[in-house]
Amino acid sequence: MLAGAFPAMAWATNGYFVGGMSLQQMAMGGAGTAMVEDAGVATLNPAGPAWTRTQFMFSFSLFEPQRSFEAFPRGAGAGTGILNVDPTNGARRSVNRHFYIPGMTYNYRWDDNTSVGIAMYGNGGLNTKYNGGSATFGQNLPLGLTGLPVGGVLPVFQVQCEGPFGGGSPLPGQTDTLGFCGDSSSHTIAGVDLIQMFIAPYYSRKITPNFSVGIEPLIAAQRFKASGLAAFRQFSNDPGEVTDNGYSYSFGGGVRVGVLWSVIPGLGVGASYQSHVFMTPFRKYAGLFADHGNFDIPSNYNIGIQIHPWEAHRFLFDFQRIFYNEIKSVGNNLDANDFANNCAVPRLLAKLTGGVEGSTASNASCLGSSSGPGFGWQAMSVYKFGYQFKYGHLKLRAGYSFTKQPVRANNILFNILAPGLIENHLTGGVSYELTHALTLETAFVYAFGHSVYGQNPLSNAPGSIALAQNGTPVGLAFDASHDPNDQTIRLYMRQFRAAVGFTYRFE
Predict the structure, then answer these.
(1) Any idea what the Cα angle at residue 396 is, between residues 395 and 398, rounded to 5°?
(2) Which of 86, 168, 175, 274 is most buried (most C-beta within 10 Å)?
């Protein structure tokens, strides 16, 4: 059902949440918690539809995100490296650029004080797809380690693998002694694809002529797939559920509640709260996401003010807070030293010694565990401003929003796959009432390009090894602390969105 309803849809605005669901919100910087123009307010504040008539709304958006990353060489003083994304010699762009986002709302006016209805819309998503490139593993491992005799042959552990994360085969002429590379040249494309959809029935009622409340159960569905990450299988608690398993589907639910108060003529205040949305895990990727494949949708709240001093002018301000950090798969940090020494080292020692030393048992520091690496996203605060000018049947809208993107420099590596970097949006739109029943609308969004620079701590991790008297390795340690010789990676994102839609009123 999810695939059929949203066949090619992915976006990232405020983190991975869309900036505005209805066209009115989209055109006004995402603001609208305290403004009732149509039933689309239900997607932001379920207290709003109590003020509207019976109607049906439909919208269709074309969304074009531009994502890229650039990997630079390590510093001249770099030593041992666990994983180095080979220099790209310029930006490597994600090849998927065009996506389509439908949305719809039906509102039924039960009586003068009550409305019920249902909304279906995309809550958010992320998509990247990088072709080509390569990655180097085991760079400059200590001489004591590389000189260990294995069957009379001096092993070489450094290897270059196809794909940005080494998910493909070793490059021609390379020997993959420790099995760092992925298992197929078909896994050279690295990326992810996530979409989230809400079906939201709601109940909205005026308690007094100036105050309304609303409740909106949220029925959520999402799908996800990852590709080109086979090199990480040996560092996962569930190696078969890391990458290239096709789409995995997840379902769950939560609730949104809201209030709307017309304080005095010309001044309105609204607020809404969306609970943590509990989802079933992505079982096909239980070895990739922290917390065993769980990918719940974070709680968030909105507070809004509408100032309407004259009939022709409306001014909006909204504040939104999104708690990405409460979801382990999104909010857990990549602790490079913990990952390198408590996950990678035991796995590598087990391979080197045939299981005499080290361990392949499940480990709290490995991918897929509750405390394992995530994307390190922080909670976000979003500030949204909107303006509407009305002239007869015509309404002109404009807006602006700004935030601090959630990706931190010390988590740059995994965020190559999930660059939710946008901080500033400029928006606009037009609404025209053709008849008493039918209104046509457009909206446009330009998200300014934004770059984030950070270091790959796994690219420069000086290592040492302890040997038993018989030459068997019994201890291996890396120092993956950040230092100036770490590889620098730059992420970049810019977005465009254009949408059209209509509202049809039945009364």
Answers:
(1) 140
(2) 168
Average pLDDT over residues 206-216: 97
Residue 29, domain extent? 2-505
Count of the separate structural domains present in the chain: 1
The DSSP call for residue 345 is H
Q: Rounded to whole angstroms, what are the CA distances from 187 to 134, 219, 233, 309, 470? A: 11, 34, 13, 59, 39
* Beta strands 211-227; 190-208: pairing state: antiparallel
Counting Cβ atoms within 10 Å, is residue 89 exposed (0-12), middle (13-18) or buried (19+)?
exposed
CB atoms within 10 A of CB 192: 22
pLDDT in the model for residue 474: 55
pLDDT score recorded for residue 123:
86
**H or E stretch covering 330:** helix 328-331
411: left (phi over 0), alpha (psi -120 to 50) or beta: alpha
Has this prediction a pTM greater than 0.70? yes
pLDDT digits (tens, 9 = 90+) for 330-345: 999 999 999 988 998 8
- pLDDT range class, residue 475, cuts 50, 70, 90: low
At residue 2, the pLDDT reads 42
CATH classification at residue 88: 2.40.160.60
Picking from 228, 282, 185, 196, the residue whose alpha carbon sits closest to that of residue 94 is: 228
Task: Say if residues 226 and 233 touch (Cβ distance below 8 Å).
Answer: no
H-helix segments, 113-235: 143-146
Q: What is the pLDDT of residues 136-183, one digit of tens each?
A: 998 876 544 444 444 444 456 789 999 999 999 999 988 888 888 887
Tracing tokens 């897929």 back to the chain, one arrives at 368
